[in-house]
Design goal:
This protein is α+β, with helices and mostly antiparallel strands and 177 residues long. It is 59% helix and 15% strand. It has a three-stranded antiparallel sheet with strand order 1-3-2.
């Protein structure tokens, strides 16, 4: 969603608590003027007048369905009630990608030794004509442990991504109350 530009008509439409309540009701689902009047305990004529003013401001649009006229929010009306929701979902997606990437880098990739790798120790054991190669597991483990990259950047991205996920989820949940 792009930034919402509020003109004079939009401010007039939002100046009434009843019209703001109508916008919130329409956020749940599309409704007729009669349904809105019943829910908000106002007359159907008053609901129709409020809807006309919001339609003029570009916040609601009528949708004729057989003999009923339903009103639903436009993108502008939705953006007034949910500012920044798109930004939060982008933050959530980027944070999840960062967490996934850094987790893969930290835990699921083999660390490449940045120095000499011990050569396998050839034993004299033969199995059906093949010489078996064996490595000193303890020596190789010590070499890899001492030369494995620390993963500082990946750990930083993991923490940053986790903070981003937490912030985005908290903001989204706070907005749903």
């Amino acid at each position: 969603m792009a930034d919402v530009v509020l003109d004079r008509e939009s401010f007039r439409a939002l100046s009434s608590e009843t019209r703001v309540a109508i916008l919130k009701k329409l956020m749940e689902r599309r409704m007729t003027a009669t349904e809105l009047a019943k829910d908000l305990k106002i007359t159907a004529q008053a609901a129709s007048e409020h809807l006309r003013k919001m339609e003029k401001a570009g916040m609601v649009v009528p949708a004729k369905h057989s003999k009923w006229v339903y009103f639903e929010l436009t993108e502008k009306g939705r953006a007034v009630l949910e500012p920044g929701t798109t930004k939060l979902f982008v933050l959530l997606a980027v944070s999840l990608i960062a967490v996934g990437w850094s987790t893969m880098r930290l835990f699921f990739t083999e660390h490449i030794a940045q120095g000499p790798v011990p050569a396998p120790i050839i034993t004299g054991v033969e199995d059906a004509g093949r010489t078996l190669a064996a490595t000193s597991a303890e020596k190789a483990a010590n070499t890899f442990a001492s030369q494995a990259p620390a993963g500082g950047f990946e750990a930083f991205i993991l923490v940053l991504g986790a903070i981003g996920v937490g912030y985005a989820l908290a903001s989204i949940m706070r907005g749903r109350r």
